[in-house]
Amino acid sequence: MKILNLYAGIGGNRKLWGDEHEVTAVEYDQVTADVYKKLFPNDTVLVEDAHNYLLNNFKNFDFIWSSPPCPTHSRMRILMAEQEGKKFKFPDMKLWQEIIFLKHFFKGKWVVENVITYYDPFVIPKKVGNHYYWCNFNIGKINEGSRNLIRMKLHDKIKDKSEKFNIDLSGYGLKNSKILKMLDNCVEPETGQHILDCAMDYIRKTNLTQTTLEL
Which one of 22, 45, 87, 103 is most buried, counting C-beta atoms within 10 A? Predict the structure, then answer.
């Protein structure tokens, strides 16, 4: 199956997918893309604008996972707005553009992931832990933990998340702030695996039904 992994980060969602699929990952940050490539050397990794890549290449894939940037949608935006000197920002509407676009034009299976928004979502998602998921298939029940790490020290946050995701970034020569950002952007690997399994099950059942009808 051809998979498009947009805004790939370091591939938390992709970690348990194995190498049976043809995965194309798109990530705009070169350093992050380099780490992804070392973690998943068999994937095609492109340093490009994921939003534009989706528009121009969506027909080439069977399954699309998109995780658009979340800071302008996060509930933290409300807290930041109350602090003096913090700039107000409009929500980045690329999130909603991609949901609407995929829903109406993509023939395969797709999922869009983001944080829980500080406003009522325009399209009803499935809530899992601290994340929203929009998709065109049933992803069932997922047990994804949510932990409050705000009061933890930087080093302890990195240790906690590295153990949680089973991803060690200590040997890449990165600053701790960069490591934490990479880990913060990760979807839990078990969640990524569960969602892909649900998509594949749906595809298999659809293909089986179509084959039976043809016979």
Answer: 45
